[in-house]
Here is the input.
Amino acid sequence: MDLTYPPEADEFRAKVRTFLDANLPADWQGIGALPHEEAAAFTEQWRTVLHQNGYLALSWPKEVGGAGLTPLESVVVAEEFARAGAPTGGPNDGFGITMLGNTMLRWGTEEQKRHYLPRILSGEDRWCQGYSEPAAGSDLGNLGCRAVLDGDEWVINGQKIWTSGGHLADHIFVLARTDPTAAKHRGITFLLVDMRQPGVEVRPIRMMSGDSEFNEVFFSDARCPKENVLGEVNGGWAVAMTLLGNERGAGAAVQALGFRGELDKLTRLAKERGATSDPVIRQRLMRAHTKVEIMRFLSYKALTAFLHGHQPGADASIGKLFWSHHHQEITELAMDVLGADSLAPTGQTPQRAFGCDAPGAPNDSANWAGVFYNARAGTIYAGTSQVQKGIVGEQILGLPKEPRADSGPWNEIPGHG
Ligand SMILES: Cc1cc2nc3c(=O)[nH]c(=O)nc-3n(C[C@H](O)[C@H](O)[C@H](O)COP(=O)(O)OP(=O)(O)OC[C@H]3O[C@@H](n4cnc5c(N)ncnc54)[C@H](O)[C@@H]3O)c2cc1C
Here is the structure.
């Protein structure tokens, strides 16, 4: 672990700060401080500013329109944006830029890169992720959405679920089964599908927070051109795994900053409400402080590894387990600090469904109650805690592997065929 930044990082940091000072509004307090509609409108126009100034797609090469930054520069940008509470892109950029774009750079044909990457950057194409299905979440290889070649087109039938941002997207990358006779993880193809057609239906799912951030997506004879395959036909599993690696990305290197901001805010709330005279609350705040410090050091560890060219692997599961459980603990603590007010919350609900509280968001009961609900999902999305523990046990500790019942052809698995 290296706790110091080289001098060139400081120079670059100054440049990023100058950009932020010059372009954020004078009274800027963080994206969370804006009412929802204003925040959405600001993010939309801010995304254009980022695009014009080379702050989108930080790691993509310049030839394809990216910023061409080194890993260290990318982390410095992420840190400065996190400190300023400024968005790093639009609501679908995690799917378009971080997941699909990076995966396309590895697996795409020249033609695919030329066509799709500029459209992702300009915001013309907005993507979502069609992986999970009702019977395929942790066990993603069990997916049953089918695609059959009909002349020059794939015809897709089946269902995806928990599709975040699907209601804001016009394109979806779909894992579809194209050879049902092959073993489970083979016979899957990664398809690029335009959602603007009658065969694609998006139905919102209402969450317990009251928001409707994710969806079911139904395919009924939906079509995409034959060449809209990323990687090989029936070779989609390898592409899917590259994309999941990109989903974890270098985010771990900066996430402790967000959790620090959130804890400082809760500490202020506890003081304002006189809760810090309760020894158990004090103890829980101290425990949270210790955990945020551990996260900071885990971040430095991830950053150092990243700078040495190490891609996130099994060790990313430790960070995922750690932050998601910390987040549930701290938001439970917030509910206890709020007491009865947490049952009838007032104020502004959170802007984000994922990760920590948005910087600058009001320190009121509605915001904390919303963040509390959202934190429940943190131990499910991007791989459940049980699955992360399996990875840590098997791949880091070298414990015996769990029994697996899925080595045969896909259609021999009970319940499918
Ligand atoms: C907020 C949110 C956003 C999401 N966004 C998207 C998205 O945009 N696109 C997308 O494709 N998906 C998305 N997902 C889906 C997410 O990836 C799945 O929910 C997740 O992989 C778990 O799958 P599942 O819900 O089918 O649960 P299951 O896999 O059915 O798991 C049920 C329970 O069994 C446990 N379990 C399963 N297998 C094992 C095992 N081998 N060992 C021990 N325990 C096990 C799990 O830990 C869990 O507790 C999202 C989910 C959430 C909550």
In short: Strands lie at 127-130, 146-150, 153-161, 171-177, 188-194, 200-205, 214-225, 229-230.
